[in-house]
Amino acid sequence: MFRFSAGPVSTGNNSAIQVVAVSCLVFLCMISAGCGGSASPFVKGLVSQQKNKFEQTLRSTISLPDSLPDAIVGRLYSAVLEPQGSHAPYHFLLLAGELPDGLSMDSSNGRISGRPLVPGDYELLIRVASKRERAQGLGHVKLQVAKTNSAQTLAVHISPTSLTLTSGGSQQFTASVTHATNNSVVWSASAGAISGTGLYVAPTVTANTNATVTVTSVQDSSKSAVAKVLITPAAITPPAVLTLNTTTLPNATVGANYGAQLSASGGVAPYAWHVVGGSLPQGISLDSASGALSGSPASAGSFSFAAQVSDSSSQSSQQQLTLTVQSNVVNNSCGPPTYSCARTDLNPAPLPSKVPDAGNLLGMNRITTDPDFNSRIVRITDASLNTGIRNLTFEAGFGGSADANVWNTDSSLLYVQDVYGWMYPLSFDASAMQVSRLYAQSFPQWGGMRISAGGSWSRSDPNVLYSFETRTPSISRYDFTDRSSPPQPSSLVDFSSAANCLPLGFKPIWRGIGGVSRGDTVFVAAYSNTGTQGSGVYVAAYKIGSGCTVYNTQTGSVSGNWGSTGIVNTPDRYTIHNVKISKDGNWVVIVGTTCFSTNCDGPYFWQIGTTNVVTCQQGCSGHWTEGNLTWVNNNGSPKIGQYQKRPFSNASLMQTVITNLPSTLQIPFDQHPSWNNADDNDSNPFLTSTYKSTTSTWAPWYNEILAISPSAGTVSRFAHTFATVASHRFSTKYAIGSVSQDGRFFVFSSDWMGTLGSESGSTTCTVGTDCRGDAFVVELK
User: Fold this and answer.
1) Taking a C-beta distance cutoff of 8 angstroms, is the pair 249, 234 a contact?
2) Helix or strand or coil: residue 45?
3) For residues 771 and 756, what is the distance between their CA atoms, to the nearest angstrom?
4) Fold of the CATH domain 153-232
5) How many CB atoms lie within 10 A of CB 588?
6) Beta-bridge mates of residue 671
7) Chain centre distance of CA 59
8) Residues 666-710: pLDDT tens digits?
9) Global pTM value
10) Alpha-carbon span 157 to 214, nearest angstrom
11) Residue 130 parent element (H or E)
12) Stretch 652-666: mean pLDDT, rounded?
């Protein structure tokens, strides 16, 4: 190490010498190759002579190292110049020479960092000054940048490297790129199709066919990896024995529309259906092609008949059935809000020995009856719902939330979601309990319309859906009044361009959907521009006619166009896990993740447009849902399965909800409540699906769909979820579902005890690994 520095010296000749010395060094570096790269011996000699003269003239006080650690082209680099002879704080200045392209120096701490791009030997003249002691020094520092280590050449890897697929089967490939600054890749296949994420779909073949899947580095297109795929034709097996599976039928009511689906398995499709003995009630007919019973019965009674199904291989199967038609004056209290026809007992209802047949990979619109609860259940999705990407799992709602408002106001429309986050709006015939895709002719590649966003149906207009966009902090509006031409989205609000809202140009990485209030007057979302769920600090609310109000949970500040602004009345500071708006639009429930302050209790109830935040501090755990004025949560206190309710305005006013709990419930026992049907007084029952892992002792409410009255404390039981509770998909594992706004239906996610085929297109699957899940709707009576 050498000293090349100047400290406080006397005036006169010494000052002139100092100026001359520095000027000479600067000049010498200027005429050299920038004091960087490989300087000539002549230039190096002049620099060395001037340095020696400078050292003889000035008193040394601060010194710098002669050299820095070596760097390698393309690799991240960081090194700190450490002065000797004085004390921080320092200020560093590059007087001569040039740093390698890609590196920069922090003048406050002397850190040189970045990713160097050009190899070479670099010589730098750096001045350092101590602000506190008024001392300074010069250092001649050397930095060598080596070429990239040949042992760390960019490489592309693919997994699996070889496999065998059946004709039309699929495989998810994965790729990795090592020693690269850009890990992006491009996929291609010699036969079949492959997506941008590596999902490969084999072509249909009649003989063994070889194909290759290639993944190529975007950074270096000469680097790639190849997997070999052997595609075999689908095995031709003798048809299974044809069986008519339906053994019971749901009751019908005189004068009311009726719908039921006969089901069969085995044989060779298509099937043909006939009544070969007895007779159907007048007004009811059997569709010979689909096996659907429909119509409106004219008279009450029990009608026995023999149904037969035949297939294209000349097999047939018969079943004796009875259809009971009730008088139209019997128990008009079935259905919401009292659900008088539902079970309320506390007797265990284990899964039936034979699970109702919902079909396998295919079975959309198949209606079954839960034998323990006599409820109609229709399967509304199957492996063919998306004709472009088959065998996907479909779920009720979005993001594993039972609070998603997936139904319109009159249960004529709803949406489901695939595991990639796409929404599929569906038309629903409430009487026949049948669904259909919307705008299939306009979107033949997908089998119908789909939307890349999370959504919430309007609470006032049955034809309007609001989408909360993923790439921008905005909300769009879709109007489905015209069922022949697909709607185009119209902008409702952009939180990043609206006045006094999110920062201009805000780019979200994560957004949480808070939802829409009664009357479509207030809309709420949470956002992060720094990371995924759990990193956001912005809660944004938009009120029609008033504009934005924003609560920053990290700073505690409220800003906006309307209401109060300033600092909230709680000292808690935190990031956001999720948010939901109360149905009346006055409150937002906020659940935190990371605490910035001394203490964070929560959840929190922010009164929109004010600085008032109510903190829930006691008995606030468990999953929850919200009405207009009330928040309910299943904290399991004082007994397993119990709910608490409290007003948003005073979280300490806590009351238990259920009056009669089963004594045999055991943990783990989980519930995910939904209250889209909440009335003004929050007296309507909320719905929930329950979760209980495998147990040797079955208790009531295990893996069922329930309605819980917050006013009467009663519990109504509607159906099994038929979930294995072991799915690899979250919503399917926990049978997440959502009640319709009119309280007549509940849509839920299920793998139907692993009978819906695999996500690779096989008719069999491994539970917890690849079993498909679908959305089902149960009728609430």
Assistant:
1) no
2) helix
3) 7
4) Immunoglobulin-like (2.60.40)
5) 27
6) 690
7) 65
8) 989 999 999 999 999 999 999 999 999 876 688 999 999 999 999
9) 0.61
10) 10
11) strand 120-130
12) 94
CB-neighbour burial class of residue 598 (10 A; exposed 0-12, middle 13-18, buried 19+)? exposed
The sign one gets for the Cα dihedral 45, 46, 48, 53 is positive
Which helix (H) or strand (E) is 46 found in, with range?
helix 41-57
Could you check whether 153-232 and 243-330 share the same CATH topology?
A: yes
The whole-angstrom separation of Cα 717 and Cα 707 is 7
In terms of DSSP bridges, do strands 224-232 and 162-166 run parallel, antiparallel, or are they unpaired? parallel
Alpha-helix runs per DSSP H in 491-575: none
DSSP line for 376-390: EEEE---TTSSSSST
Judged by phi (left if over 0) then psi (alpha if -120 to 50, else beta), residue 21 lies in: alpha
- C-alpha to C-alpha distance for 574 and 537, rounded to whole angstroms: 7
Name the strand (E) or helix (H) holding 302: strand 301-310
**Cα separations in angstroms, 427 against 39, 365, 408, 430, 480:** 76, 12, 10, 10, 10
Domain 4-149 belongs to what architecture?
Sandwich (2.60)
Instruction: List CB contacts of 116: < 8 A, sequence separation 6 or more.
Output: 71, 72, 73, 74, 75, 77, 100, 101, 102, 103, 145
Rounded CA Rg of the chain: 35
- Cα–Cα distance for residue pair 215/39, rounded to 1 Å: 44
CB 525 within 8 A of CB 499: no
Q: Is 541 in contact with 496 (CB distance < 8 Å)?
A: no
* Joined tokens for residue 364: 């959309």
Pull the structure tokens for residue 640: 């397993």
Cα separation, 76 vs 116, whole angstroms: 8
Instruction: Cite the DSSP H helix spans in 374-531.
Output: none
How far, in whole angstroms, is CA 527 from its chain's centroid?
A: 14
Asked if residues 508 and 529 have their Cβ atoms less than 8 Å apart, the reply is yes
Residue 334 near residue 781, CB atoms below 8 Å: yes
The whole-angstrom separation of Cα 651 and Cα 390 is: 47
Domain ranges of the chain: 4-149, 153-232, 243-330, 333-452+661-781
- Residues 80-104 have pLDDT tens digits of 998 888 888 889 999 999 999 999 9
Across the chain, how many H-helices and E-strands are there?
3, 57
Mean pLDDT over residues 335-358, rounded?
93
Per-residue model confidence as pLDDT tens digits over 167-213: 999 999 999 998 887 889 999 999 999 999 999 999 999 999 999 99
Q: In what order do the strands lie in the sheet containing 162-166?
A: 162-166, 224-232, 209-217, 185-189
Q: Tell me how far apart the alpha carbons of residues 246 and 302 are, in angstroms, rounded to a whole number.
A: 17
CATH no. of 243-330: 2.60.40.10
137 to 62, 89, 126, 289, 604: CA distances (angstroms): 5, 14, 8, 94, 57
